[in-house]
Amino acid sequence: MTLDQGLAFGLMGATIALFLWGRFAYDAVALGALLAGVFLGIVPVEHAFEGFADDVVVIVAAALVISHAVARSGAVETIMRPVTPRLRSVAIQVPVLAGATMLLAMVTKNVGALAILMPVAMQLARRTGTSPAALLMPMSFAAMVGGVVTLVGTAPNIIMSRVRQELTGEPFRMFDYTPVGLGICAVALLFLAVGWRLLPGGRRGAASMDAAFTIGQYTLEARVPEEGEAIGMTVAELEARSEGEVRVSAILPAKATELAGAQERAQAPYPVARASEVPAPDRTLASGEGLMLRGEPAELERLVAAAGLVLAGEEAVPDNPETDEDDMRVVEGVVTGESPLVGRTPAALTLRSRHGVSLLAVSRRGEQRIRDKLSQIRLRAGDVVLLRGLAATMPDNLGELRVLPLAERGMALGQGRRSWIPLAVLAGAMALVAAGLLPVGVAFFGAVVALFVFRVMTTREAYEAVDWPVVVLLAALIPVSGAIQRTGGTDLLAGWLTGAVEGLPALAALAVTMVLAMAVTPFLNNAATVLVMGPIAATLAGKLGLNPDPFLMAVALGAASDFLTPIGHQCNTLVMGPGGYRFGDYARLGLPLSVLVVIVGVPLIAFFWPLAPG
Q: Model-level pTM greater than 0.70?
């Protein structure tokens, strides 16, 4: 072993030790390792920051943004809506939700697929009395398994494609993983459909900080636009869009709605618009009518988007064509006793024109129904309001109005969203990649730009959607892991591993490689596992006189199959709190699934990627 090899191994060993210790953030450790590599001379200065320009970093960041846009769109919930009422027992809920998560993870990043369907699972659990613990871990495992089917489903596949390009000059393409991945998915789904019974009963999800701010239901005012989807829909049909989570408490006549808007723009009080009595379920909605909707903010947002309604006060504030959605904010606050809002209506205060904010919704304790237009409500001390306005002036506006802002809860109400555009953009990007017209990085980068062009999301929301610690971790570890290969360390490790598997059948050597990747991933991080083990596996294959591709596939599949701990993969971490899981719960379901992946995956890889060099 040379000095440079010893330094490279020592640096990687120290990095892994710090990952295991957990005292410092992963991204901070990776940045420190990169700096140490430069100082030690094993990472050339000219290569120190090449990871930040690597395609894999762009692909992972773009996949997270696209997944967030799809999650916010509500399109998946719309697709699932005809199915969810039929999911009455756990035995049906688990395979359907796991299967849906698996399918979605095949076309978008697996953690994004899980995040999209988790709200559906939580709502279903609440309505049917099912424990979330029975649903969330199978969905997490299904997301990880589904991600191995395509190039963009999981980070290990993306990184392994880059590793193969460096080693052979040819990357793995979009659907090179598909034959093996589909076989793994079929076996995993069959197992999860019955294996959920291995999970302990009685687990209860941890309460989030949102629970500390349980305000109750909000009432908002929305309008049925001309040629809108809700025209001709009955009240019962509209409420069914939210599966009963949102109620229509009153209907405002169309003329009153239009008159109110015109007179408010003239900055003058207007006559009170009389709402109808409690609308009958078979009452048909007409163009221009106003609706008073009551429910939780998330459910209200989904219904407004799904039915194509327009929120009162959703217009840009102030009316300026240069105002962009990036500049807008929705804030939740409490009306204090000193507020000029107390005892007055937003219309009388000319809230929008004078203070630059719009009232989107109101929550009032002890008030079962608010039937007047929001602009005509006399606000009280203690009312909780959702206000929308310019981010730059919002703090001053809240101070003038004596409204105390609550902890930020990621309110998306009033932000607007285009329900089917994100899925269409994603499908277009996937088609361009599959046809070989664009590389993955360019296609997904273009998809993010398209989301901005179609105003599906703002640039600020895109920045918030990216998991920056993961991006920094990848960018910093790429040159560090390259140091082991550059100094000849991968050849040295491959020699040791060759000695360990010498005399074993080729399938056994392939199985050992996959198991080793599985064993390392919970402690190292799946991206780092691929970066470190990919070159080692390829070198091992060369020393054994075998084709490197199946060994690279084995590392990618093993690194993507972290079912044993809550810390090795974001999907497992994401469900730990809501599912109320303990560390040891993951092995109950994950260990037999890991064994199945090895038993099924090794022969599948060898079949579709022959071990003998071609």
A: no
